[in-house]
Design goal:
The structure holds two protein chains of two kinds. Helix content of chain A is 0%, strand content 52%. Chain A has no helices and eleven strands. In chain A, strands 2, 4, 5, 6, 9, 10 and 11 form a seven-stranded mixed beta sheet that branches. In chain A, strands 1-3-8-7 form a four-stranded antiparallel beta sheet, with no helix packed on it. Chain A is globular. In chain B, 33% of the residues are buried. In chain B, the strands form two sheets. In chain B, strands 2, 4, 5, 9, 10 and 11 form a six-stranded mixed beta sheet that branches. In chain B, strands 1-3-8-7-6 form a five-stranded antiparallel beta sheet, with no helix packed on it. The N and C termini of chain B lie far apart (40 Å). Classes of the chains: A mainly beta, B mainly beta. Chain A binds chain B through residues 4, 6, 33, 35, 42-43, 45, 48, 55-58, 90, 92, 99-109, and chain B through 29-31, 33, 35, 41-45, 48, 50, 88, 92, 96-99, 101-104.
Chain lengths: 115, 111
């Protein structure tokens, strides 16, 4: 079974631009979560999508948005990029059915550098 | 709010055992997880433990859970240089229902 695939692996953008990151979950997984990882703040939860609906959201500004398609693939968009948005963005997929053993499987991440 | 705390660094010699400790605040999570992150990579699930268990062994890995003290540990037996990585303990917590991560413990294995 293929794992979680994130594209692109690396991105370089300039301040003020916008960026779209993509995540393809493990086949059969309906939940996709996004995390931002920085040296200073560590791993922080952005949002979770389940069956095309945002189910949970972290404490990030509205410049960060996402969506999920009917095939469970998800995209994350960051508008008006700031230097502080430079980070590793990780996507994780899970069955999303709750009940506790909701193991999240992570992709390799997209490394975003904002210049 | 909900929190997970780990020591930041651990250095061991190859062949020794490593013990990585973690404390957490949210006791409502049914499962607790350990992930490993190698440089430039995503997170790899190592193991997990059900909250009503005290111990789980999986080959070289032993997880101990003290629910009363909200303390979780990961023991790696016969640590190898390939075990050098950052280790995160995590559980589901809070109103957002997402995984709560500590800062991670960077394990360095010296030959």
């Amino acid at each position: 079974k293929a794992g979680v695939t994130q594209t692109p692996r690396y991105l370089i953008k300039t301040r003020g631009q916008q960026v779209t990151l993509s995540c393809s979950p493990i086949s059969g997984h309906r939940s996709v979560s996004w995390y931002q990882q920085t040296p200073g703040q560590g791993l922080q939860f952005l949002f979770e999508y389940f069956s095309e609906t945002q189910r949970n959201k972290g404490n990030f500004p509205g410049r960060f948005s996402g969506r999920q398609f009917s095939n469970s693939r998800s995209e994350m968009n960051v508008s008006t990029l700031e230097l502080g948005d430079s980070a590793l963005y990780l996507c994780a997929s899970s069955l999303g059915t709750g009940g506790g053993q909701n193991i999240q499987y992570f992709g390799a991440g997209t490394r975003l550098s904002v210049l | 709010g909900e929190d997970v705390e780990q020591s930041l660094f651990l250095s061991v010699r190859e062949g020794d055992s490593s013990v990585i400790n973690c404390t957490y605040t949210d006791s409502s999570s049914t499962y607790l997880y350990w992930y490993k992150q190698e440089p430039g990579a995503g997170l790899q699930l190592l193991t997990y433990i059900f909250s009503n268990m005290d111990m789980k062994q999986d080959q070289r890995l032993t997880v101990l859970l003290n629910k009363k003290d909200k303390h979780l540990s990961l023991r790696i037996a016969d640590t190898q240089t390939g075990d050098s990585a950052i280790y995160f303990c995590t559980n589901y917590g809070g109103s957002q229902g997402n995984l709560i991560f500590g800062k991670g413990t960077k394990l360095s294995v010296k030959p």
